[in-house]
Amino acid sequence: MFKLMLMLSSLILILMMLVAVAFITLLERKILGYMQIRLGPNKASIMGISQPLSDALKLYSKEMVKPFNSNFTSYFFSPSVSLILSLMIWFSLPIFKPILLMKMGLLMFFSILGLGVYPILMAGWSSNSNFSLIGGMRALAQTISYEVSLIFIILSNMILNNSMNFFKLMEVQKMFVYIFFMFNFLLWMISCTAELNRTPFDFAEGESELVSGFNTEYSSGTFAMIFMAEYMMILFFSSFSTIMFFGFYMSELKYFITVMLFIFFFVWMRATLPRYRYDLLMNFSWKIVLPSSTLNLFFFIFLNLTSK
């Protein structure tokens, strides 16, 4: 019975995430449209509500183009691996508390997050295109650089409760005033934006210089999988940020409101800021974000030691 409940919970979670990702794309296109004084998608159904369904039908019914010199096995499977990892990382969150609760959810989060760059690198390399390869290498360097800072920021919060359990982390957040984590939160949002390859740090898909970056040679269903994995990670990091910095339970209305505000923030960044320069991005990571997150980690370690 327990195994059946676990399977049903997992299936419900996967279906919910796939539906949510579809409508996040519609939300982004609508917000960008109104920010640019236009309507956005409005032809499919009423006010463009069924636009995600139309996009899915179009993408998955198109012919898939196979590059002549590509390494087809890696080229074909890397989008699937990327989507699977984006789905798996959700199980680290305390969603179905009585059935599916990991005592070391943060450790699983670290593990899957570290694997996320491999499908992007495989996609860029196996396409056998210079643009794709450069996009994949950029993504590798950028992701590794900012993941170090991300982990240090999470460790700073984790040290206060000496646990990798999300529920204990949420309880600690309710004990402290949010302003206490403001510097941590600022570093987190910068690192998240770079980790998600969002504007102004979208160098893995730099359209102005790399056509479409690591996914230049992808079309049809494989491109849709890469697209879904990217937006699923945006939704995940919005949820993760809400839990880690605000301590809201996933059954609360304010949790959903905060998640939507985070998603709006990422879209707002895309509509407002121009693309940064790649060498400045790497300098910013190693010379500003990483030293700041390291000092912040030492501060929390000192705080933890002095409180005992």
UniProtKB/TrEMBL annotation:
Catalytic activity from the UniProt record: a ubiquinone + NADH + 5 H(+)(in) = a ubiquinol + NAD(+) + 4 H(+)(out)
One of the protein's GO biological processes: aerobic respiration
Top enzyme class: translocase
Localization of this protein: Mitochondrion inner membrane
Function: Core subunit of the mitochondrial membrane respiratory chain NADH dehydrogenase (Complex I) that is believed to belong to the minimal assembly required for catalysis. Complex I functions in the transfer of electrons from NADH to the respiratory chain. The immediate electron acceptor for the enzyme is believed to be ubiquinone.
Record InterPro entries: NADH_UbQ_OxRdtase_su1/FPO, NADH_UbQ_OxRdtase_su1_CS
Protein family (similarity comment): Belongs to the complex I subunit 1 family.
Keywords, ordered alphabetically: Membrane, Mitochondrion, Mitochondrion inner membrane, NAD, Transmembrane, Transmembrane helix, Transport, Ubiquinone
Gene Ontology MF terms: NADH dehydrogenase (ubiquinone) activity; NADH dehydrogenase activity
Name by which UniProt lists this protein: NADH-ubiquinone oxidoreductase chain 1
Membrane disposition: Multi-pass membrane protein
Keyword match Membrane: yes
GO cellular component terms attached to this protein's record: mitochondrial inner membrane
Segments crossing the lipid bilayer: 72-93, 105-127, 139-160, 172-190, 223-248, 255-273, 285-305
Source organism, top-level taxon: Eukaryota
